Amino acid sequence: MKAFKEKRAIQRNLARTIVILPSSPEKKVLTFSPPPLFWILSCVVVLAVPILAGFGFWGLYRSSSVNARAQHLEIENQTFRSALAEQKERVHHLSHELLTIREKAGFIKDFLGMESDSSHKGGIGQGGVELSPKGFEPPSNLAASGRDAGSDRSRSILRAMDIQQIDTDLERIIGILQDRKERLDSMPSITPVDPGRVWLSSAFGMRTSPFTGKRQFHPGVDLAGAKGTPILAPAKGRVAFVGNNGSLGLSIEIRHDSTYKTTYAHLSKGAVKKGQRVERGEVIGYMGDTGRTTGYHLHYEVEKDGKRVNPVDYMMDWGQEDILLAVE
């Protein structure tokens, strides 16, 4: 038993012996047997090297990833800063534009004679800067306040109530302009016949009647021309009457609005019907000599608020060279 244990010990020593062979037969063979701790440390080192190398590569990878992420975040940050600066510039520009619009609206309100809304003091058109009709440049202090947004933001960015007031005033302006356009469209403004094809044979006012020889009031004008000359509507409106009207012969009446009404007499033929809507310049009939006349002509009357007025004042395309009065 003792011999067996000694044999096993010799085998274990041989298993842990390191032999270094010489490079030539003359040299001595080197052998040494490291202690067990050497082998334990060697195993630890062998196992630790790849683990440490793995941790090192992983650390390098993480560092590279973090750097890439940091660069990406920096780029995003720069992009956001650029976008923020652009938005600030747009806000500054829009603020300046709104201030300019406010001044324009104030000028238009003054031009239209609109009364300011006292419930919004400091709103559009409430005194302050005076503007000329030649330009709509905002005052220098307003422009400067837009440029100095950092020092006083409240002077470059309009409050919500200012924008609401601008919207309200612009709605009022649009309403007034639409109303005025409607009134202008309904106001007689052109000669009801081509001025180059007729002449003024009898004016508005007192005249000597060609039928009685006495002084009488002539409530319209007579425009003489050839038979069949087209008669035009001087403004938009609705036909109120078409038919025979005694001494006026075949006549047409147009109600333009609550203010104006026009009458056309001595027509040879009508081209519209009662209740029909007509537009300025539309043919409504043709010149004739029906009724009591001395020749082919159009008798034209204009009523304003129920009172007859001089039609020549509403014949804006009628020049002085076109006027030729018949000798009384």
What does this structure look like?
With 328 residues, the chain is of the alpha+beta class. Among the domains are: 99-186, no CATH class; 195-322, Glucose Permease (Domain IIA) (Distorted Sandwich). The chain is 38% helix and 21% strand. Strand 4 and strand 5 form a beta hairpin. The model is unreliable at 118-147, 149-156 and 324-328 (pLDDT under 50).
Question: Any key phrases for this structure?
Answer:
38% helix, single chain, 328 residues, ten-stranded antiparallel β-sheet, rod-shaped, disordered C terminus, two-stranded antiparallel ribbon, Glucose Permease (Domain IIA), alpha+beta
Basic shape: rod-shaped
Number of helices: 4
Main sheet?
10 strands, antiparallel
SSE-based structural type: alpha+beta
Counted beta strands? 14
Average pLDDT metric: 77
Q: Which CATH class of the domain at 195-322?
A: Mainly Beta
> CATH topology of the domain at 195-322, what is it called?
Glucose Permease (Domain IIA)
